[in-house]
Amino acid sequence: MGIAKSKFQSLDLSALAELAEQLDKAAQVAEEQAAAQSKAPDELSQHFRGGASASAADSLRRKAGLLQSNATALAQLSEAVSDVYTGLSASRDAVGELLRAAQAQGFQVDEHWRVTDISGNQGLAREAAWRSLSEQLRAALGGYDSADQGAVRRIREAVESFAVPQLDAPQGASAEA
Question: Which residues of 100-110 are buried (b: 16+ CB within 10 A; e: fewer)?
C-alpha cells in the first residue's frame, strides 16, 4: 500500500458522512424547487397568452426539467458518497483489527506495513502465525485500495450524471466564430 501506516491510522472518513448528508439536503431543496418551477408554466399561461407566453412556458419547463434532473443527480451522489463512506470505513476497520491482533500476538507492523516478530518466540507455529498475519494484512490493505479505487469510480459516475444546461446562442449570433 502506498500510504504510510501512521497516515492510514489517522484517516478521518467522517467528512464523507457529513458530505453525504449535505448532498441529501441539497437534493431535497432542488426537488422542492423543481416542483415549484414545474407549476410556473401553467400559472403563466393563465395570465399571459401568445407566442411570447408559449416560449416562456417552454423555457420554464426545460429549466424545471433540468432542476429535477439535477435533484436526482444530487440524490444519487449523496447515496454514492454514503456507500463510499460505509465501504471505506469497513475496510479501514478491518485493517485496524488486524493491527490490534498483531500487537496482541507479539508482532509489530512498521510504517511500511512490514510485520516483525518482537515476541522472542521461535518455531514453526510462530512462523506460520507471522505468515498468516502478513497475508491477512496484505489482503486487508488490498481491500482498502480496491474500495478506494471503487469510490473514485462511483463518485465520478455520479458527478457525470448531472445535467449541464445548453446555452442558447444570442439572437443574430452565428455558430461559427
Answer: eebeeeebebe
